[in-house]
Design goal:
This protein is mainly alpha-helical. Helices cover 65% and strands 3% of the residues. The strands form two sheets. A two-stranded antiparallel sheet has the order 1-2. A two-stranded parallel ribbon has the order 3-4.
């Protein structure tokens, strides 16, 4: 399927006495009880993630100064990834009904446990949800290091221009730096006027890194500590990228002047990833990206049932609904990166 064709005028919004397409779908979702809170699910899920973190920290101090710690670094990369996915659910008000509880939980999981600013990430992610894959408005497709469209490639300068020529090959290696990039961007954002609580967030970030680096360099030799950081942070970034990249990369890009209603803007720019329970756990529900974008506050546990209803509804109204396997989604994303970098390669 040619992704660009999904934005054709043939899928223009319809209207009826029953309301917009999205309002009709929303009623079906609400009637199925899929927007209701799932306290037991989140108690069990967060409990397991918390136990994994405690077990990992206990094992770290028990093992001591040994190269076997590299195996633990691998395991802790997965645990950190699960904490990041839990932070994502907190940020979308999927866990608690009150903003204060969600924000408190987010500050603990993001700033204190991960070393990432909750406020900075919330601002960035909210803008992404409002305009997914919009070249001018979605921060996730801004030409920071990579370029996401041929138009961006032609206008690229500096590092994006250099990397863009071979970005499909460099994509996964660059993901190993994503964990460090999130922390660096978090500290840099503390000076931003949009940051509501810079002192609190900064204190929690510093506390995280004092504890993180302190534990590593007290328990391990300098060489082993640096190796642990490289393995842990590298795989953590790779894991995060493997969860987020399949959702939109390679799907249609929206430019200024293209008008889509809410349902089409979310569905046509998103890709679902099939794969069963393993993918559900690995991606933390982000594999149901279409449903998540349509109903961001829907509890993770309800997304699977929502997918059935949403796909059927899209078929009814003639809106293309796209899903594929995990490996295929990455192949499509890499093909897109290679394709949009072509103008830069043609220069040589």
């Amino acid at each position: 399927m040619a992704k660009e064709s999904l934005l054709a005028p043939s899928v223009a919004p319809t209207s009826s006495p029953r309301g917009s397409d999205f309002s009709q779908l929303s009623r079906r979702i609400a009637q199925a009880g899929l927007l209701d809170r799932r306290p037991l699910y989140y108690t069990v899920r967060f409990g397991l993630v918390g136990l994994s973190l405690v077990a990992g920290c206990t094992a770290f101090f028990a093992l001591g100064d040994t190269w076997f710690q590299m195996l633990l670094a691998v395991a802790m990369a997965f645990v950190f990834g699960q904490i990041a996915l839990a932070t994502h659910d907190l940020a979308h008000r999927q866990v608690f009904s009150r903003n204060r509880a969600s924000e408190t939980g987010g500050l603990i999981t993001a700033n204190l446990l991960l070393g990432m600013s909750y406020g900075w990430w919330m601002n960035k992610h909210t803008r992404h949800h409002a305009n997914p894959n919009h070249e001018e408005k979605d921060p996730d497709v801004s030409p920071d290091i990579l370029v996401w469209s041929k138009r961006q490639a032609r206008a690229a300068k500096g590092l994006p221009r250099f990397i863009g020529r071979h970005q499909a090959h460099l994509f996964f290696p660059l993901l190993t730096l994503e964990g460090l990039n999130l922390s660096f961007s978090s500290f840099r954002a503390l000076r931003s006027p949009s940051m509501k609580r810079p002192a609190l967030e900064g204190t929690l970030l510093v506390t995280h890194f004092v504890a993180y680096f302190g534990a590593l360099f007290v328990v391990l030799s300098p060489l082993k500590a640096l190796a642990f950081i490289a393995v842990h942070q590298g795989l953590f970034g790779l894991y995060l990228g493997s969860c987020f990249a399949p959702n939109h990369k390679g799907m249609p890009m929206i430019t200024e002047g293209q008008e889509l209603d809410f349902l089409r803007r979310q569905v046509l720019t998103s890709r679902n990833v099939k794969g069963g329970p393993f993918v559900d756990v690995f991606m933390g529900g982000l594999n149901y990206q279409i449903e998540h974008h349509l109903f961001p506050s829907m509890p993770n546990a309800a997304l699977k049932k929502a997918q059935i209803i949403t796909q059927a509804f899209c078929e009814e109204i003639g809106v293309p609904y796209y899903q594929t396997g995990l490996l295929a989604s990455h192949r499509e994303a890499l093909r897109h990166l290679r394709s949009v970098g072509e103008p830069l390669r043609l220069e040589f």
